[in-house]
Amino acid sequence: MSLGLAYRVRIEPSFSAWREEARLLLRQGIAPDQVELVSTEQDHAMTFGFAPAPAPDPALAIQKPSVPKAFFELAEIVCCHKDPDRWQLLYRVLWRVQHERSLLLNELDEDVARMRRMDQQVRRDLHKMHAFLRFRMVSTPEDPEEHYISWYRPDHRILELAVPFFAERFAVMQWTILTDYASASWDPQSRAVTWGPGVPRSEAPPEDELEGMWRSYYSSIFNPARLNTRAMKAEMPVRYWANLPELNILPQLLAGAESRVGVMMQQQSSLSANTYVPNDHTLPVLRDAIPRCEGCELYKPATQAVFGVGLAHAPIMLVGEQPGDMEDVEGKPFVGPAGKVLDQIIAELGFDRDTMYVTNAVKHFKFVQRGKRRIHESPNLKEIGACRPWLLAELDAVQPQVVVCLGASAAKSLLGAKFALMKDRGKIVESPYAPRVVATIHPSAVLRAEGETKQVLYNYIRQDLALAAQTAGLAG
Ligand code: SF4
Q1: Residue 384: inside a domain, yes or no?
Q2: Helical H runs in 133-268?
Q3: Which of 287, 292, 296 to mutate to test the pocket of ligand 1 (most atoms within 8 A of CB)?
Q4: pLDDT class for 220, splitting at 50, 70, 90?
Q5: Do 309 and 429 share a domain, yes or no?
Q6: In this structure, are 426 and 349 located in the same domain?
């Protein structure tokens, strides 16, 4: 963007710095088209000159901005994008949100769509960093303590976002992650991170014996059935390969791949949807692939797989158990009586199901035939586990702020087999698969209940959905 002699505000590349400047601009009533927010990384202000600040406009000034939580959460991710225009975009959307409260729900809006794209790109980069970063061990005679170091080149400024993952996973190790723009060191004693400047690739330690361990580990987990070199290059651009010692053994692994595929297919054929889920986790691609799934036996008697529906980047994802009789016929989740209970609660809370994404933990209808009737039967843990790769792929595609598990099967899929629904429902908890999950009763339990219990269960779902909406920044 080039605004010539526009009033220019320089932003240190951090969310807190942008928020501080944005707050000041709002207070002065300075509209986005009166100011250029420039990152200090790209700023050439001194060579171009710039205009003085416009006079504050009391008519437009906003002293107490009202900002949906969902905006802040999105902005915290978008500000890590390397696009130099991100600060300007964020301020423009922040300004507009003051006047259009539901702006973020408008997926067709150009600014919102751009923010969503940037959010997704940053999250993908983060996912790659979690998967492909490798530590190398260093120790010297002067400092015999083991210290693990990694140099990594992310596409975006994601080190701050990535560090909590490594702090949790390698909590007892002393490690440092170096990138070209910043570094972070973890001290297991104080459990604190120290931040430092970026360093060039040449300062990363050389190959050592730890890489041998990585290679053995990788060859033990290598899954030749998923080997698709084109997809590998898409998922893991060649420039990342330098970080991966295991790729040196790829030729050997490839040589033995064919025979291992047979053995693994035999082992996995009735256990998991893993080999049927495409690497491309976009909803149209997943929806197109699911009819071919034979990850467990449930596809055999059912009419069709029932994939999720709803807003592509919905702030809330509702996960039920499995399709019922009507869903199996119509091919859509929650279109039967339980869906009507759900719709009623959502409407009472002032929302619309179309602003959410709705799916099931298991995609095929499990039932027993009694005469002409098909009686619902709950999926067992093996079937829930077999179908989980589809649910995880949907989570990856939608990236919801909050996941609501409707019933014990969905909760077991995302929160583990030991999750106690009646004891732990109605609490926001973290899952290995999603940052915020709340479990509640399945709406069909309301239909089955009698007397006062019916209303009690109904109220539980209502309360828990209200909590999810509030956590996603849609309420209050
Ligand atoms: S229930 Fe899930 S894993 Fe089993 S066949 Fe259907 S889609 Fe595949």
Answers
A1: yes
A2: 159-169, 209-221, 229-235, 250-255, 257-268
A3: 296
A4: very low
A5: yes
A6: yes
In this prediction, what percent of the chain has a pLDDT beyond 90? Answer: 46
Q: What is the length of the chain?
A: 476
pLDDT digits (tens, 9 = 90+) for 98-115: 988 889 888 889 999 999
Q: In terms of Cα–Cα distance, which of 300, 281, 238 is closest to 395?
A: 281
What is the residue range of 170's domain? 133-203
| Ligand 1 proximal residues by C-beta, below 6 Å | 273, 290, 293-296, 298-299, 305, 362-364, 386-387, 390
CB 393 within 8 Å of CB 341: no
Give the whole-angstrom CA distance, residue 445 versus residue 289. Answer: 32
Å from CA of 386 to ligand 1 middle: 7
Residues 32 and 160 occupy one common structural domain: no
Tell me the residue ranges of DSSP E strands in 107-166.
136-138, 147-151
Q: What is the pLDDT of residues 310-337, one digit of tens each?
A: 999 999 999 999 999 999 999 999 999 9
Query: To the nearest whole number, what is the mean pLDDT of the chain?
Result: 82
Same domain, 371 and 389: yes
Q: Which residues contact 442 (CB under 8 A, 6 or more apart)?
A: 320, 321, 338, 406, 407, 408, 410
Ligand 1 probe mutation, 327, 377, 390, most atoms within 8 A of CB: 390
Give the largest CA-CA distance in the chain: 83
Distance (Å) from CA 387 to ligand 1 centroid: 5
